[in-house]
Amino acid sequence: MSSPALLPRLWTAFLDLLYTRRCEVCECQIEAGRTGASRWLCDGCLKNLPEVNSPFCSRCGEPYHGAISDAFQCGNCQDLNLHFEFAIAGYRADEAVRELIHRFKYQRELHLRGLLTCLLSRVLQDARLAATDRESWLLVPIPLHHARRREREYNQSWELCTRLTQLHRIPSLDALQRVRATTPQASLSRRERLANLKRAFRVKPSLARRGRLKGKTILLIDDVLTTGSTASECAKVLLQEAGAARVWVLTVARG
């Protein structure tokens, strides 16, 4: 009998044979049977994606240039009271990565969730994750306000969570609610961002009552990390309301 995980792979292989696949960046034809991110990208475009590599801030994941061999925190993080232990992204939000995320997020190109999840999976190689017990891990998406979700028809962060669960068998739980609509963060100062997000999130009451997140290592999932204010506020709620042991932030890209 075929395993549940095998059936999607067989279906994908069948579709690859039936339809011509083209690179999602340059649209050149790519051969069938490729796996991982190379199912969607040609070798050249995949190689040119702007990876986040060391050195980067050990707290927010902001990449830096230069020969820095020791772990460090950037000046911005030293001035902030962030509630997550660290954030890590696979790629910089530049060029093709930014365009792919924009298409997935705003143009309803849901087929790109497979590619973006493969790109996000790169962060699982980080030594800080590899050194921990996966049994306590739980994937939790950054939530959308119900009005935004109704407009967009899906939460891109939850789509990434569910696909990560399929690929890596890490359980996921849609545990947070955005209970108050907020002004877009990009236009605000640091102090305004914090005020804007205050009491904007909560753990779903039924999950909090049952202790579903108590003692868990939460992998908070999103497409892009920019200032980190939203992720930090979500982490604060998970720690204080749900009793999570720790929160790490994993994103496809670092803005």
List the main descriptive attributes of the protein structure presented here.
16% strand, two-stranded antiparallel sheet, four-stranded parallel sheet, Rossmann fold, alpha/beta, 255 residues
Please describe what this structure looks like.
The structure is a single chain. Helix 5 (112-121) crosses helix 8 (156-168). The chain has helices spanning 6-18, 43-48, 75-78, 95-106, 112-121, 127-130, 146-152, 156-168, 190-197, 205-210, 229-242, and strands at residues 21-22, 29-30, 86-92, 137-141, 176-178, 201-203, 217-225, 246-254. 33% of the residues are buried. The chain has 255 residues and is α/β, with parallel strands linked by helices. The N and C termini lie far apart (45 Å). A hairpin with a 6-residue loop joins strand 1 and strand 2 (29-30). The chain has a four-stranded parallel β-sheet. Strands 1-2 form a two-stranded antiparallel ribbon. Strands 5-6 form a two-stranded antiparallel ribbon. It is globular. The model has no long low-confidence stretch (mean pLDDT 90). The chain has two domains: 1-48, no CATH class; 50-254, Rossmann fold, CATH 3.40.50.
